[in-house]
Write a structure and sequence with these properties.
The protein is an alpha/beta fold. The protein has a single domain, classed as Vaccinia Virus protein VP39 (Rossmann fold). It is built from eight helices and seven strands, in the order H-E-H-E-H-E-H-H-E-H-E-H-E-H-E. A seven-stranded mixed β-sheet has the order 3-2-1-4-5-7-6, sandwiched between helices. It starts with 20 loop residues before the first helix and ends with a strand. The structure holds S-adenosylmethionine. S-adenosylmethionine (SAM) binds next to strand 2, helix 4 and helix 8.
């Protein structure tokens, strides 16, 4: 069983220095995708190895996972993949990292922690203030992908994003994955578990307008 981390803990107030795109990636001009709450990064390793015309960045709050993932990426010499440790809110809210948001083509929130108790809702990754920051700095046309197996969390995330007038829901039926960060529809670890256990998946894609 994994340990839940309280993202509001003061331990995460200090943010590591974020390298420039040129320092993070072999070719900094490639399309950039950000996966928030990437855990050990297996999903991003799978993506980065297949789609070498994209750069992939993962943010994860569990430091040990990030250290191991960074080491693995270096050892395997994968130069379109990078990991940053910390609370994604604090990282992306910091002035030194706004360049990340403005360079993104897409962001994924895959199976975020649900924080079921009402008094813990403020620990959820998607918050109105966070969506505001994204909406202020993302380029038009950038996509946000959300996916969860918890209906209540889905409704909450959907309401929070859709309440921001800078985001519009896309028509998922017609969505063409072949041009996206995940053309082969690779699954995350949690997604594989959810499918194996025949649980529901709730997902939506939004576009910055
Ligand atoms: C349920 S796991 C899902 C992992 C993976 N995305 C998947 O689909 O298999 C949620 C992940 O988000 C991370 N996380 C939670 N809050 C976070 C935050 N504020 N910033 C960065 N990562 C966070 C957790 O540590 C955990 O690894």
């Amino acid at each position: 069983m994994r340990q839940h981390v309280n993202p509001l803990s003061r331990n995460f107030n200090e943010i590591e220095k974020i390298p420039s795109l040129v320092e993070m990636f072999g070719d900094s001009k490639l399309n950039l995708h950000l996966d928030i709450g990437c855990a050990a990064g297996e999903f991003l390793f799978d993506l980065a190895l297949i789609n070498t015309s994209w750069n992939y960045l993962g943010i994860e709050i569990r430091e040990k996972l990030v250290k191991t993932a960074k080491l693995k990426a270096r050892e395997k010499e994968i130069n379109n993949l990078y990991f940053v440790f910390g609370n994604a809110h604090n990282i992306l809210n910091d002035d030194q990292s706004k360049f990340i948001i403005s360079n993104l083509k897409s962001i994924s929130f895959n199976f975020p922690d649900p924080w079921f108790k009402k008094r813990h809702y403020k620990r959820r990754i998607i918050q109105p203030e966070f969506i505001n920051i994204l909406s202020n700095y993302l380029q038009r046309g950038t996509l946000i992908f959300i996916k969860t197996d918890v209906k209540d969390l889905f409704d909450y995330m959907d309401f929070t994003i859709a309440s921001n007038f800078n985001f519009k829901k896309t028509d998922q039926q017609d969505f063409n994955y072949s041009d996206s960060f995940n053309p082969n529809k690779i699954k995350t670890n949690r997604e594989k578990y959810v499918i194996d256990n025949q649980l529901d998946i709730f997902e939506r894609i939004y576009i910055k307008i």
